[in-house]
Sequence to fold (243 residues):
Amino acid sequence: MPEGPSMVILKEEVRAFKGKKILAASGNSKIDIPALVNQRVVDFKTWGKHFLICLPKLTLRVHFLLFGKHSINETRQGKPRLALTFTNGSLYFYSCSIKEIHENLDDVYDWSVDVMNAHWDGAAARKKLKAHPEMLICDALLDQTIFAGAGNIFKNEVLFRTRVHPKSLVGNIPPRKLTEIVKQVHLYAFDFLKWKKAFVLKKHWEAHAKKICPRDNIPFHKEYLGKTKRRSFFCDQCQVLYK
Fold:
């Protein structure tokens, strides 16, 4: 599933279509596709894992789910959920969810929970964490109402950076350590962005999908933890389980 930094990169990739009129639209998405023709793209925005195409009459919300893809000026295998043609190229979306938003985006989205947004509020994120003392920290880091844009890579890397075991309950984690976790989520978001742009993201993984702990040189544990049963990679020796 693409995470927040990948949405920011996509926004940069499609900036040439900003201000352009949609000349043709097609796809098998259950939205009013014919109504998109002749509308002009006002802006592209992101919120967490959502990619937003802002038009004068509505906004299209693209969620890439687990296997969504996009392409620019070239088609992929399979039928696109949405294809948009402009004077200067075409934009295609595959295997994703596309919905219409007719409300003002400021009424729909809390920009302060988006880890990539200029309005990110770390203090508010910490307050939300403390409001869920019974939650596993591995679930909390994937909660989009707390850390919009953070995903499974974030979870594994941040918990390794902060030396916190994924099975720790939020309420048992010391206050200073909670503050450190929130700070590292934000820092990692921009490390992720920098490394992904340079095509070296995987080279910088310390825990995610790894077999050996680089600190202790012992095998990582791999388990499917929490409510979402996402893969967790962790070290029982250097990551503290707060009981």
